[in-house]
Design a protein that fits this description.
Keywords: Aminotransferase, Pyridoxal phosphate, Transferase. This is Aminotransferase class III-fold pyridoxal phosphate-dependent enzyme. It comes from Dactylosporangium fulvum. This protein is of the alpha+beta class. It has five domains: 114 residues, Phosphorylase Kinase, domain 1, CATH 3.30.200.20; 223 residues, Aminoglycoside 3'-phosphotransferase, Chain: A, domain 2; 162 residues, Glucose Permease (Domain IIA) (Distorted Sandwich); 257 residues, Type I PLP-dependent aspartate aminotransferase-like (Major domain) (Aspartate Aminotransferase, domain 2, 3-Layer(aba) Sandwich), CATH 3.40.640.10; 103 residues, Aspartate Aminotransferase, domain 1. It is 37% helix and 19% strand. It is built from 29 helices and 41 strands. It has a seven-stranded antiparallel β-sheet. A seven-stranded mixed β-sheet has the order 27-35-34-33-30-28-29, with helices on both faces. It has a five-stranded antiparallel β-sheet with strand order 1-2-3-5-4, with helices on one face. Helix 6 runs antiparallel to helix 10 and helix 8 crosses helix 10. It starts with 16 loop residues before the first helix and ends with a helix. The N terminus is likely disordered.
Length: 963
């Protein structure tokens, strides 16, 4: 085929030629002919993909194979196209982990086909189709995905380092090194004066860096990693990751850092915390390839400039009605993001990106800190620094992205003599605003210029005045009171760079802690000559892992370090509050004042071991026994649920003279050696050692995964029949069971609710074999299921009851209750003694817990709030296919996640991810169950419908996200 190889004139595009050319249009009939003749493709269907310059189409061949067909614009040059084909081939050979389109050759071995229309010639290019989801279609971009975008940018730019530049000089509208020219060509079409002013501010900052940009490293770059050119796909954990990059139409030889800057610009679109999103992209890039400090300094300005080009260009095109709704939407999103970026100082962005790249966030900050230590730190006199206010004194529920700003920047100072504030260090008063009650002073007399901002005072100085050391600055008058303390005070912040001054915040986000520490030295710490305790999570985790065994695990891959709690809320070192929907240890709520007062009074009076006689031991035993049904009347104390089950096991074996024990499949009864051997959840796990010969498992009465489902009215009898079969078999073998251990709701095994009637039938079968029935109420006792005891709702009374977690509301208190007959027989054997069990302090806590449950009607509340919770969760199941089953009783619920409702494939990775996301949004839940795919929910009994709604709404939002 005779294909024209070049145009007669040299190919040097003007900056705006391509943006004005418009996409060509070739008829479908002619395309089918070209594809058949040139490529041998019999095309069944052609559909439009859209495009700015070229006509892009999806062609599906008769055999179902898909291709991208590009009708290149009239301005296309063969040499330039050939270079792009070579670029795609180069990437295909050099890049792993991310796919790029593969260019197809014609039957004659040519690079392109040709279509002629009305005397014009258009090149036709065919590329392989890449499956995936457009990044632009995702509702959320989690950190891992954002880092993947950065990694992709680094991978591309590294692969293209040795790619030869295009054969001819080329620039175009989207060349970031000429962004000011592109904006200028479109700005007249922007009618809104506020938007014009916004673009002007951004581009003024860009212009100040243009020479610096021109001097940076250059290479071939893709240059258009926008959210329509990046495809994502789910990885093995069900999370979206970058899978492919398309469209090299804007590839060129330019500043290497343009690749990352463009990726940052579009990654920020649609996010509520654009700086954080951008930082994750930079982090991913820096982990893959080197970033020069000079390059880091222009990433944010270049990204903002790209958005200015985007916003003004689409506004121009929309004004000419060239793009319809798409162009208007694209323009709107860019304008919205630009408005958010205008509040972010370039210095803050650069320092944040440096920290993400593993560098000192702001090297000059060291000199400023030294200067501030020698001035403010040495001379703060006559005022009292308030050191108690970091993090923020009022916890903020962490419900949204961006992360709430909870860390106080700078310091509060309070006058000790009158209401006038004095600066220890003189300087030039740059602003003094009586209405805003702020004073800004530039301190340039030392070795490192810095600024102090005084807020909450009426100035006694005027702008432009130069003041000396120890000069008055302002005073508190009238309603000048600190918002946190209500006392007369001033907020003083020291800043290392001028562009931080106009937008200095009172509080900052915790993730920016290290960056702001470099940009804003804390005068309070310097004045007090102290270094604040490091509350960083990484430090706490590192110390824990260094000095404790790793088997002592913690919740979440990225946990929070909790420092306080109240009611249903837990607060971390950064002032963020979390709704606790998992902590059934604090049965009646965190820091309950009744329990706290009882413990405080008792610990100051008496605490000793239980071989002494004190009233609390007997009073608490009597109180528990009075709540249990006959014939359960005797109580033994322990410290933990594991100890209680261990004691029950010992009791059953001693009283019956037997060693074999029956347990429900998947059960967990504690962590002592003895009860681990009757815990399938543990001995069947990696390293568990397998089932001991004396342990015998009965089928778990699981109506979701088991053989008898919710729709089987005889499920209880059928599951109980297995208990009877095992008991009869053991008796026939001369190994009759000592006991059956079970829960009235199987907890760690997956929040399995028992079929009505199962427990009574199972107990009957075990007793028929001469065994005892042990009801493990460690997780569900004293009210959690909406009844005082879990077995109570099943019309069954066990021989032995074990209690633990909820009894002391966090104090180590557990118990075993049994009949007088069993107790007397047990007492004939080895004596039972437990040093700390039933000590006066823990008994005081236990009595207080029972008082609160009775006083506040928490059993009834668990029933009503639990019904509301289950209703809300089942509503989610109607909307989200990932939820296979919702089950529970009272304030104990489980959500089983499956990838397919028919096959019930466990969604374990998804469950863990969702729990991590819930933590990020300020709600604590966690997976459990045999497959790790069940979200367990077991909050304090003081949960109310408003808390339920927070939990349900947050979970609904996360299940709706793309991840």
């Amino acid at each position: 085929m005779n294909i024209p190889r070049s145009r007669p004139e040299p190919f040097v595009e003007t900056a705006f030629q391509r943006i004005s050319a418009g996409a060509p249009e070739v008829s479908r009939t002619q395309l089918r002919e070209v594809l058949k003749e040139s490529y041998g493709l019999a095309v069944a269907q052609i559909s439009e993909l859209g495009g700015e310059i070229d006509q892009n189409l999806l062609a599906e061949a008769d055999d179902g194979t898909r291709y991208v067909v590009k009708v290149l614009s009239d301005a296309a040059d063969f040499a330039d196209i050939t270079w792009r084909v070579e670029l795609l081939r180069h990437l295909g050979e050099s890049v792993t982990g991310v796919a790029v389109p593969r260019p197809l050759s014609t039957l004659d071995g040519d690079t392109l086909g040709v279509a002629r229309r009305e005397g014009r010639l258009n090149y036709i290019q065919v590329l392989s189709w890449l499956p995936g989801t457009l990044l632009s279609s995702l509702s959320r971009r989690p950190p891992r995905l954002l880092q993947g975008i950065g990694t992709t940018a680094a991978t591309l730019v590294t692969a293209l380092t040795d790619m030869a530049p295009p054969p001819v000089s080329r620039t175009h509208h989207w060349d970031l090194t000429r962004a000011d020219e592109a904006v200028a060509s479109c700005l007249d079409h922007v009618a809104d004066p506020d938007r014009v002013a916004l673009v002007t501010r951004v581009m003024t900052r860009y212009a100040a860096l243009r020479e610096r940009i021109q001097s940076l490293r250059k290479s071939v770059v893709h240059n258009d990693l926008n959210d329509f050119n990046i495809l994502v796909a789910r990885d093995a954990n069900g999370c979206h990751q970058v899978s492919a990059v398309v469209d090299v139409g804007d590839a060129m030889y330019t500043a290497r850092i343009a690749e990352l800057s463009v990726a940052v610009a579009y990654a920020m679109l649609g996010t509520r915390d654009p700086l954080r999103a951008a930082t994750e992209v930079v982090r991913g890039y820096a982990r893959t390839t080197h970033l020069d400090p000079d390059e880091i300094g222009v990433i944010f300005p270049l990204a903002a400039a790209r958005l200015c080009v985007n916003a003004t260009t689409w506004t121009r095109r929309a004004s000419a009605d060239e793009t319809g709704d798409y162009g208007r939407a694209r323009s709107r999103h860019s304008w919205d993001l630009l408005a958010m970026l205008s509040d972010i100082p370039f210095t803050l962005a650069e320092a944040t990106f440096r920290e993400a790249a593993g560098l000192d966030p702001w090297p000059r900050g060291v000199a400023v800190r030294t200067e501030v230590a020698a001035t403010f730190g040495a001379r703060l006199t006559g005022i009292t620094p308030c050191l108690e206010a970091a993090p923020g004194s009022t916890p903020v529920q962490n419900r949204a992205d961006p992360q709430p700003a909870t860390l106080e920047l700078g310091m509060r100072i309070e006058p000790t003599d009158g209401t006038q504030f004095t600066t220890p260090v003189g300087g030039l008063v740059e602003s003094a605003d009586r209405q805003e009650r702020t004073v800004t002073i530039r301190h340039d007399g030392g070795t490192a210029t810095h600024w102090s901002v005084w807020r909450g005072i009426v100035p006694v100085v005027v702008a432009g005045a130069r003041i000396g050391d120890n000069s008055p600055v302002g005073k508190v008058v009238g309603d000048s009171r600190d918002e946190d303390t209500g006392r007369a005070s001033c907020r003083l912040t020291v800043l290392a760079e001028e562009d931080l001054v106009p937008r200095v915040p009172a509080r900052v986000q915790p993730w920016l802690r290290k960056v702001w520490a470099a940009l804003s030295p804390a005068p309070a710490q310097l004045a007090a000559r102290v270094v604040a305790d490091d509350p960083a999570l990484r430090h706490a985790v590192a110390v824990r892992e260094q000095y404790t065994g790793r088997a002592q695990r913690y919740y979440f891959d990225e946990p929070m370090t909790v420092v306080s709690s109240q009611g249903v809320w837990m607060s971390d070192t950064e002032g963020l509050a979390y709704l606790d929907a998992i902590n059934n240890v604090t049965h009646i709520g965190h820091a309950d004042p009744t329990v706290a007062d009882a413990v405080s009074r008792q610990v100051r009076r008496l605490n000793t071991n239980s071989r002494f006689v004190y009233a609390q031991f007997g009073r608490y035993a009597e109180r528990l026994a009075s709540l249990l049904p006959d014939p359960l009347a005797v109580v033994y104390f322990a410290c933990t649920g594991s100890e209680a089950n261990d004691l029950a096991l010992r009791m059953a074996r001693q009283v019956t003279g037997r060693t074999n024990v029956m347990v429900v499949d998947g059960a967990y009864h504690g962590n002592t050696t003895a009860v681990l051997e009757i815990s399938p959840d543990r001995y069947d796990s990696p390293g568990g050692g397998g089932r001991p010969d004396t342990t015998h498992v009965v089928v778990q009465p699981n109506r979701y995964r088991g053989p008898y489902g919710y729709d089987d009215p005889l499920a209880a009898q059928k599951y109980a029949a297995d208990v009877a079969d095992v008991a009869r078999r053991l008796s026939a073998e001369g190994r009759a069971p000592a006991a059956l251990f079970t829960e009235a709701l199987i907890g760690s095994g997956g929040q399995i609710t028992l079929p009505p009637g199962y427990l009574a039938s199972a107990f009957e079968a075990v007793r028929a074999a001469g065994g005892l029935c042990v009801s493990d109420e460690v997780q569900i006792g004293i009210g959690r299921l909406g009844t005082m005891w879990g077995f109570e709702a099943h019309g069954a009374v066990p021989d032995i009851v074990t209690l633990g977690k909820p009894l002391g509301n966090g104090m180590p208190l557990a118990a075993v209750a049994t009949t007088r007959e069993i107790a007397d027989e047990f007492d004939r054997g080895i004596r039972y003694f437990n040093t700390f069990a039933g000590n006066p302090v823990c008994c005081a806590a236990g009595l207080a817990v029972l008082d609160v449950i009775e006083r506040d009607g928490l059993v009834e509340r668990a029933a009503s709030t639990g019904a509301y919770l289950l209703s809300g969760l089942r509503g989610l199941a109607d909307r989200h296919a990932l939820i296979g089953d919702v089950r529970g009783e009272g304030m104990y619920a489980g959500i089983e996640l499956v990838r397919n409702r028919t096959t019930k494939e466990p969604a374990d990775a998804e469950a863990l991810y969702i729990s991590q996301r819930m933590r990020e949004e300020g709600v604590l839940i966690y997976p459990n169950g045999r497959f790790g795919n069940i979200l367990k929910i077991k909050p304090p009994l003081i949960f109310d419908p408003s808390h339920v709604q927070i939990l349900v709404d947050t979970l609904d939002s996360i299940l709706t996200e793309d991840w």
